[in-house]
Design goal:
Strand order of the largest sheet: 3-2-4-5-6
Largest sheet: 5 strands, parallel
Distance between the termini: 13 Å
Strand content: 15-25%
C-alpha cells in the first residue's frame, strides 16, 4: 500500500525590505511579500536578475551561432541542399516536444524548401518503433530520393543508423537535447546543448527550442528568402518547452514567455482568421484560452501526447499544428480529443489494476516497484508509473507483456554508447516505462542491469525498456538490491513540499497576480505550492463520466468550496482524479496550487495533497479513526504467554491483564502468523469496525498480535509429507478437511492449492465432497514431463511463505503501525 506522504515546507529566508519594494513595483495591487519570498528563495536576489526574470524585453537571448562550429556546419549543409534543390527529410519524435519540433522545422525549413516535394517528415510509430532513427525508415527515405535527414528531439546516440544512412549517401544533421554519445558521430552536424557548459543560457533547451535555433540561424544566413516572420514559430516552441518539463531558465524561459503571448494573441482572433486553427480548436475543446502555462501543461500537451499513446502513429499532429485549413484542423482536433479521452479511460483502468497489485507489496522491503500485466496497454504505462512513484516515493517500473512472443526479430543489447544485435526467434518480450522520484537516478539503475534487457533508453527521471518476460523476476530482485545498497540507511518516503503558508482569506486575485510573476513555471522554478492549515470542505461534488461524441469515458474531478477561520467567504477548488468522498470530513490541512479558470472566469485552487488536521476538535466529534494513534491499539505479544488475554465482552473494563489502562478495550487476538499485509490489515479493519459498531471512540478494541516464531520444516520435507498423506488417504479411502491438512502440513491455503496442483501431475485426483476432500491416486506417465516443474513451483511457494512468516515474526511494531496507518479506514 502507498505510504503516508511526508509534508515539508521550504525554508524561506525573509527577503530585505528593499527587495520587497522592488517586487511590489511589478505587482502594485498587492503587498508583493509572497512573490518576494519565493523569488529570493529561488535565487533572484538583485534588481537586474529580477527585471530579466520578469520582463522578457530586458533579457538578452543567445545567438544561435553560440553552438559554435556545429551550427556553422549545419547551415552550410542546408545551404548546399538549398542550392542543389536536394530533398530533405525531417525525422521527428512522437511526444509533444518531438511533434512541435517537427512542426517548427516543417514550417521553418518550409520557407526555404518546398513542402511535400523538397521537404517531407517522418515520425516513428510509438507502438511499433522506438525513439530515434531506424534502418527501415532510412531505407524508405532513400527510396524517395532524400539526400539529407534533419533530426529533431532525437538521434544523438543512433551511431549505427547514422553510419547506415551515410552508406546510402544520406547526410544527417542531428538536433537534439538528449544523452551525448561518447564520441562525435559521423554527421554533417550535431547541435545539442549538452555540449555547452551547464551554466550556459542555452544548456536547458528542449528539442523544439533546438530546432527553433537552427531555423533562426538559417533565417539570419538567408535573410531575404522567408515570407513569414521567424516569430510565427514561437507559439509552437512554447507548447513543446512547457509540455516537455525542461528547466525554464535562460533562453528556455525567454522563448516560453514570448510563445505564450503569441499563443494567446492568435486564440483571441476570430476562428476563421487564426494562424493556427488546429491549436485554437484544441484549446476550445479543453476549455482553455492559451494565456496560462497550465493551458499547455494540462491542456495541449497531454492531448498531443495522447495520440501516439493510443494510436501509435502521431504523424497527423504535425498537420494539426501547422495547417491553415480550418475544416481539416477541426477534424484532426476532434480525433485528438477522442484519443485523449480514450487515454484518460485507459489510464484510470490501469491505475485501478496497479493499485490492486500494490496491495500485495510490502513497501517496507521494496525499493523499486516493478509490476507486470498482460492486459496493460504500453502507451499509458509511463503516466501511471509517474503517479505511483509520486504516491509511494519509490522508482516505479510498469511492464506490459501484451502480445509477447508473437514474432521474431533482433535482440538489441543497448547502452548509451553502443549496441549489440543478435537474431532471435519468437520471444516473450515485456515492454514498459519507468519513472523516478527522490533524486534517484533511474537511468543509471536500469543501465546497470543492461545485461538482462532487450532495449532501454531515457534519463535520470524517466526511462523506457524492454526485456524477456522470463528475466523479470531476476531484473526485479537485482534492481532492488542495487538501490538498497546505494541507499544504505536512507528510507524512501513519498514527500510533497509546500512553498508558502497561507489562509483562505489570502486566496484570490491579489495573491494570484503576485505568484504570476514567477510564470512560466517548470523544473527549477516549480508552480508555488500553498499550505492551508485547519481548513474544511463543503459543497463538494464530482463527475465520473464524460460524454464525448456519444461514447462514455471514465472521467473524475471533484469540485468543492474550502473554508477556514480567516474569512467568512468560501473559495472554490478542484481535485483531479478524485471523488468527493475522498475529501476528509472535518478539519484538515491541504497543499494546493492557485490558478485562474478562464472557462469559468474564476480564481480557484487545484488540490495537490490533503490530510486530517491533527489538532481538530471537529474531527474528534465525527469519530475519525484516521486521527487516532494506532500504537496503543496494537499490542505486541509475539513470542509471549498470552493465555490471560482471551477476548472479552464489549462491556469489560478491567486493566489487570496488561491492556492499556487509558482505553476501556477488548482485545482481538491473532495467533496465526500472517504471510502478507492484507491478512493483518483485515484483522485491524475488523477491530476498528467493531469499535464503530459499539460506542464510537468510547469503546475501541485492541488488536493483539500474538503469534510465535515459526518452527519451519525444510520445503522438501513438507512436500514429502503432503505426498505421504495423499497416498495414505487414497489407500484408506478416508476423507480429510482442508483445515486438517493445513494443520498437519503447516502451510497456508494458497500454498496448499499450489501443492494440490502439483499432486495432480503425479496422478492424484482431488475432489470436494461437502466440506471434505477426497484424494485418489492413479499413477500415470502422461504428465511426468510437467511434474518436476510443478513440484519446483510448490517448493518455491513454500520458501516464499516461510520467508514471509519469518519476516512477520521479527518485523518491528513501528513498521506494522506505519503500514497499517497507510490504509484508509
Amino acid at each position: 500500500m502507498p505510504e503516508q506522504q511526508q509534508w515539508t515546507i521550504a525554508a524561506t529566508e525573509q527577503p530585505p525590505e528593499w527587495f520587497i519594494q522592488v517586487v511590489k513595483q511589478h505587482t502594485p495591487a498587492s503587498s508583493g511579500i509572497y512573490a518576494a519570498k519565493l523569488l529570493w528563495q529561488r535565487g533572484i536576489k538583485n534588481d537586474q536578475q529580477l527585471t530579466a526574470f520578469i520582463n522578457h524585453k530586458a533579457y538578452q537571448p543567445a545567438s544561435p551561432f553560440e553552438f559554435g562550429q556545429e551550427m556553422h556546419l549545419a547551415i552550410a549543409r542546408l545551404q548546399q541542399a538549398y542550392n542543389a534543390k536536394e530533398k530533405i527529410a525531417i525525422w521527428g519524435d512522437f511526444d509533444a516536444d518531438g511533434i512541435t519540433a517537427t512542426s517548427v522545422l516543417w514550417d521553418g525549413l518550409g520557407e526555404f524548401f518546398k513542402q511535400n516535394t523538397q521537404l517531407i517528415y517522418y515520425i516513428p510509430n510509438r507502438l511499433k518503433e522506438s525513439h530515434g532513427l531506424n534502418e527501415q525508415g532510412i531505407d524508405n527515405l532513400a527510396k524517395q530520393g532524400c539526400k539529407l535527414i534533419v533530426t529533431c528531439d532525437t538521434g544523438s546516440t543512433n551511431i549505427e543508423e547514422i553510419v547506415y544512412a551515410k552508406q546510402l549517401s544520406i547526410d544527417v544533421i542531428v538536433t537534439d537535447h538528449h544523452t551525448l554519445p561518447a564520441e562525435r558521430p559521423p554527421v554533417a552536424a550535431i547541435i545539442n546543448p549538452r555540449y555547452l557548459p551547464r551554466e550556459h543560457q542555452l544548456f536547458h533547451l528542449s528539442g523544439v527550442a533546438v530546432a527553433y535555433k537552427l531555423v533562426e540561424a538559417l533565417y539570419q544566413t538567408l535573410p531575404n528568402v522567408a515570407k513569414y516572420p521567424l516569430e510565427d514559430l514561437l507559439d509552437l516552441v512554447a507548447v513543446g518547452l512547457i509540455a516537455d518539463l525542461v528547466q525554464l531558465s535562460g533562453d528556455c524561459r525567454y522563448l516560453a514567455q514570448l510563445g505564450i503571448q503569441r499563443l494567446q494573441a492568435d486564440f483571441q482572433q476570430p476562428a476563421t482568421a487564426r494562424r493556427r486553427p488546429g491549436v485554437g480548436r484544441l484549446l476550445e475543446l479543453c476549455q482553455k484560452s492559451g494565456d496560462r502555462p497550465t493551458d499547455i501543461s494540462f491542456g495541449l500537451g497531454p492531448r498531443i501526447n495522447a495520440v501516439s499513446r493510443i494510436q501509435g502513429d502521431a504523424s497527423f499532429c504535425v498537420e494539426l499544428l501547422t495547417s491553415r485549413n480550418a475544416k481539416r484542423c477541426n477534424e484532426l482536433a476532434e480525433v485528438t480529443e477522442l484519443a485523449n479521452a480514450r487515454r484518460k479511460s485507459l489510464q484510470k483502468d490501469v491505475q485501478a489494476q496497479v493499485a490492486q497489485k500494490l496491495i500485495q507489496l510490502d513497501l517496507s522491503t521494496t525499493s523499486v516497484i516493478v509490476l507486470e500485466d498482460a492486459q496493460w496497454p504500453a502507451g499509458v504505462l509511463g503516466l501511471v508509473a509517474g503517479q505511483v512513484a509520486q504516491e509511494t516515493g519509490r522508482p516505479t517500473i510498469l511492464l506490459s507483456t501484451e502480445g509477447a512472443g508473437e514474432a521474431g526479430g533482433e535482440i538489441t543489447l543497448l547502452s548509451s554508447n553502443s549496441e549489440l544485435r543478435i537474431q532471435h526467434p519468437a520471444l516473450a518480450l515485456a515492454r514498459g516505462s519507468a519513472r523516478s522520484v527522490n533524486s534517484v537516478d533511474l537511468y543509471q539503475l536500469v543501465k546497470d542491469q543492461a545485461h538482462l534487457l532487450h532495449r532501454f533508453g531515457g534519463h535520470p527521471f524517466a526511462a523506457g525498456l524492454s526485456l524477456l518476460v522470463e528475466n523479470i523476476p531476476l531484473f526485479t530482485a537485482a534492481i532492488n538490491q542495487q538501490l538498497r545498497q546505494s541507499l544504505g540507511s536512507t528510507t524512501l518516503t513519498p514527500t510533497v513540499q509546500a512553498d508558502l503558508m497561507v489562509t483562505v482569506a489570502d486566496l484570490g486575485k491579489e495573491l494570484f497576480l503576485e505568484l504570476k510573476l514567477l510564470e512560466p513555471c517548470g523544473m527549477g522554478n516549480p508552480v508555488p505550492k500553498l499550505l492551508i492549515q485547519n481548513c474544511y470542505f463543503e459543497n463538494s461534488w464530482h463527475r465520473n463520466q464524460q460524454d464525448w461524441q456519444g461514447k462514455k469515458v471514465q472521467y473524475i474531478k471533484a469540485e468543492f468550496d474550502i473554508r477556514d477561520d480567516s474569512s467568512r467567504s468560501a473559495f472554490p477548488g478542484i481535485w483531479w482524479g478524485h471523488y468527493k468522498d475522498e475529501l476528509p470530513i472535518g478539519r484538515c490541512d491541504c497543499i494546493a496550487e492557485l490558478d485562474y479558470n478562464t472557462f469559468k472566469k474564476r480564481y480557484e485552487i487545484r488540490l495537490i495533497a490533503v490530510r486530517p488536521s491533527v489538532n481538530s476538535a471537529l474531527n474528534a466529534r465525527n469519530g475519525l479513526n484516521a486521527l487516532l494513534p494506532l500504537t496503543p491499539l496494537i499490542l505486541d505479544l509475539r513470542n509471549q504467554e498470552h493465555s490471560a488475554l482471551a477476548q472479552r465482552p464489549a462491556s469489560a473494563n478491567s486493566t489487570h491483564d496488561g491492556l492499556n489502562p487509558s482505553y476501556p478495550l477488548t482485545a482481538l487476538i491473532i495467533e496465526d502468523c500472517p504471510t502478507n499485509w492484507d491478512d493483518l490489515r483485515a484483522w485491524l479493519r475488523r477491530c476498528l469496525t467493531t469499535s464503530r459498531s459499539t460506542s464510537g471512540l468510547d469503546n475501541q478494541q485492541q488488536l493483539a498480535i500474538a503469534w510465535s516464531k515459526p518452527n519451519l520444516q525444510p520445503p522438501n520435507q513438507i512436500w514429502l509429507t503432503l505426498v505421504g498423506i495423499a497416498k495414505y488417504l487414497s489407500r484408506t479411502n478416508q476423507l480429510v478437511t482442508r483445515v486438517q491438512l493445513l494443520e498437519k502440513i503447516g502451510i497456508s491455503d494458497q500454498t496448499l492449492l499450489v501443492g494440490i496442483k502439483a499432486l495432480k501431475y503425479l496422478g492424484f485426483t482431488v475432489k470436494l465432497q461437502d466440506r471434505y476432500l477426497q484424494i485418489t491416486w492413479h499413477p500415470s506417465d502422461s504428465a511426468e514431463n510437467f511434474a518436476d516443474a510443478a513440484v519446483a513451483r510448490f517448493l518455491a511457494t513454500v520458501r516464499e511463505e516461510q520467508f514471509q512468516r519469518q519476516y512477520f515474526a521479527e518485523v518491528p511494531l513501528s513498521t506494522i503501525v506505519a503500514i497499517a496507518s497507510s490504509d484508509n479506514y
